[in-house]
Amino acid sequence: MTTCKNCSLVPQALPAEGTLVLTGLPEREALALSEALGPYGIPLNAVAGGLWTFDLFAGGFEIVLDWARLVSDRLLQEGGWLRLEPTEVLSFAHLGKVRPLTDLVKRIKNAWVLGMVRDNRFTVHYHPIVETSDPQVVHAHECLMRGLDHAGGIVSPGHILDAADEEGLVFHLDRVCRLNSIRGFAAQGVEGKAFINFNPVSVYNPVACLQSTVAAARSVGLTPDRIVFELIERNHVADEAHLLRVVDFYRAAGYGVALDDVGAGYSGLNLLTVLKPDYIKLDMNLIRDVDQDPVRQSIVGNMLEMARRLGIRSVVEGVETEAEYEFALREGADLVQGYLFAKPAARARGATSVPVAA
Questions:
Q1: pLDDT for 183-205, tens place per residue?
Q2: Domain check: are 93 and 176 in the same one?
Q3: Is residue 114 one of the residues assigned to a domain?
């Protein structure tokens, strides 16, 4: 089986050992760092003009982060850093490997998300998607990622995604969450489909990157017809040809495809013509107070009619009031989703299992 090493091999965290080399530090800023290191008995060593070193220790990077908050942005942009292994000796050859201090600060700040991915500290919450004609009938559950801190508390998905973007961990995060969603949904023991979010930029090569997804579904007995991969366009899709390859891979394997946030902008409507998905999910901002807004009523009504003509099942997201639901019902939406019917929860509706963290 072809697999993707880029997706499965999570980068190593910065080791708190060896020597940290800092370049471009004026004496005043170096003195401030030296004072911060003093209580730990760690000296800051002057090597040459603007070049300083100290031996790393547990908590050393956090000291640097606290110090970096007090210096100028210009210093962080113009200064540099390099970590030497315990057995390495600083030489002129190392100076070509120096990276900006801004890079070090970013890596220290986002170390938590790297640890979260490496430890797989995620759980899944389930949000029902119900039949518009009878909201008691669950058509599917959307599987939503929830990160866990070390104490087991929920971490904001947006916070996780922002940090993963900065750290180049989108590939690894998306893969872990796809696998957790598949395994978690199967463990709930419910009928219907699983809507699983995926970010197209997280896939290098569909054949290689998605083999683990296919294998996970097969291992838990979820047939392809029970899984719908929901395209979330967190970042603009610049390479439509690549996106089509990803979608074609899913379709060839028998999975459904949904396009999220249709109506949120030009790109969503443009992707609709390119992808021809099985489902479209109308952007919740179009639904908010739609019963009171004739313009939104016209837009949503036309979009639902378009979906019917194209043979695409429609999902109206973000339904929170009876009036919004009555509008969706009157306009012929196939499915609805929102707090009016249920909030995302650790147990799917009708679950037969006890939820556990992934």
A1: 999 999 999 999 998 877 655 55
A2: no
A3: no
